Amino acid sequence: xxxxxxxxxxxxxxxxxxxxxxxxxxxxxGELYMIGxxxxxxxxxxxxxLYRKYPGLWRKQASFDERKRIESQGIISAQSTNNITLVRAxxxxxxxxxxxxxxxxxxxxxKRQDNKDEGSTPARRTRGSRPNPSWVPQTVPxxxxxxxxAVPTATPVSRSRFLTKRVRxxxxxxxxxxxxxxxxxxxxxxxxxxxxxxDLEGHRLRDxxxxxxxxxxxxxEQFSEILxxxxxIPGAFVPVIANIIxxxxxxxxADTKALTEDSDHRxxxxxxxxxxxxxxxxxxEWDISCPQNSPEEFARILCQELGLGGEFIxxxxxxxxxxxxxxxxxxxxxxxxxxxxxxxxxxxxLDKWAPTIENLTDQEMEKKIRDQDRNARRMRRLANMN
Length: 386
Prior knowledge:
The chain has 12 helices and 8 strands. The protein has helices spanning 36-42, 49-53, 64-72, 89-97, 101-105, 178-186, 220-231, 237-250, 295-306, 310-330, 332-335, 362-385, and strands spanning 33-35, 59-61, 85-88, 191-200, 203-212, 266-275, 278-287, 356-359. The strands form 3 sheets. Strands 1-3-2 form a 3-stranded antiparallel beta sheet. The protein has a 3-stranded antiparallel beta sheet with strand order 6-7-8, with helices on one face. Strand 4 (191-200) and strand 5 (203-212) form a beta hairpin.
């Protein structure tokens, strides 16, 4: 039979750094708690590593009243991040002392009872309480047409209204050895367009990015934790964002190896991008079979010529790669090929093929995005009906 470790059988104590986190009470029970991010920094397990290593560790998100009580004890300030994870001080003491095996096992997921056993009583929900909302994973549409939609303004990084220092987790400790980094550098870069549009716990996250499918040193979970920390949104977004990234990476296929360079595989790329109050609309032809064509380099030069900020570069490269993936998936260039051109310089319809930049007010931008979202939903319904 298994038994707990005796004092002489303990593992080596974990190496810590800095000052030990403060202990405090949040209710009348007198039980002591700590802030999870401070514990992670103390144990050198930041960015969620503490919870991944010890899945059986008890933790909870502090409620508004509990946060106020912690603030009244001088543990945090009024400008601290809204997402505070609490852990039990006794369990952290066990981990520091080397008695951490029981927290590595993790707890079994709670399964729904069928209530078929004799004497079993079905669980009842008290009046006024709400069941825990279950998040339905966002999946990639079969057509991948979401990459053809307009690119909205990304959720901005949270800026504290005050100049006081915000309590946040420590930066990632880069403990990757040089050999691993050199091996990763030798891998071919395969960028996949990722679109995030999530409504959760009263917050909405909108963002676009490109993810290297061959990335080995950074996981979607680690990236999600960094993004959530930067935007100061609830920690419940972390598994959602990671799942969306993995799903869209697995569903993306833009293999151009079968295309020959001596053939004409031009497609029309349309840009409709919003950053802040600036809107960019443009269209141009793109040769899929040309290996020298780089969406990132094109976006950089275009933004340099138009005097646009760096946020447009990532949005443009995302939009181009998303549309290229759609064209390659459905081989649109074989169904209705573009006319053969004799010169790369156009002589007619110049207004149609020139970039347009608009500086809109907040109301105008909100109305434009709302109309585009409505039109995108209508087009998807028509596509599903067909």
